[in-house]
Design goal:
Elements lengths: L1 H13 L6 H33 L31 H6 L2 H13 L6 E4 L16 E4 L4 H55 L7 H40 L19
Antiparallel strand pairs: 1-2
Amino acid sequence: MKKTQDVFFKEEEVGTLPSGTAEYFGTAITALRRDRIAFAALIQNEYGELSHAVALPPLNGVSKLTFENLPSLEGVQPIRPEDFFRAAQSSSYEIKALNWLLKASRYLTKSVLFSFLDPDGSASIGFGTPATFTVGKSQEHELQKRIDETYSLIELRSAQTAGEFNAALEAFALANTGLTTTLKRLDWLMQRHLNGDATLDEADFAEQVAGLQIKLIGFNADAITSVQAWQFAKSKLDRMLLNGYYHDLEVAIPEENKKI
């Protein structure tokens, strides 16, 4: 937008735009600068929060962010929970661990407490399953009930993840459509101005250009946000199917066909 304002200043000098047009256009730039200052302050606060979370000095522990190239969602197809929830159940670390607890309970003559290692310190393992169980012969029914609940919960999470995944794709497509339409409108408006269209009010022209460029910024932000939402959903999908970063978790899952 600053480049557009510079062009407006030059056009004022040669008389193709009325005096004050560039200055008026600059009010939109000032508003964006204000937002940028607020956003920079927010990022600075996040540095402190991230530093504190990993036990680093909040003032200088994390001092910058590394920006990565976001993937394009062009060509990415929607997913259906019906196509993967059974695979998620089959590969579930939680269900396999619960099945082993069920087997162990049949051999115990007295009840013992079993706890999952929980690195985040919360009172649950994946999918909200309680982290501590009483294991013993009298708890077989309760363990089987928890296994059935976890099967159902994975099916529910599959539907939710597919919804988030597909919603991100739709939002990305809408943002791109908005970008394309707005660019066409801006090109059309600039061409009218360059052709000296007498029906185009110059003061209104500057306001329209500012509004369209702000819309472009908004649609770009929407596209980035939708890609981030898709990445979160994809991460959840990978977690359920033990793909990507979660692939190596398979080595920690006991084999069902082994005897205790």
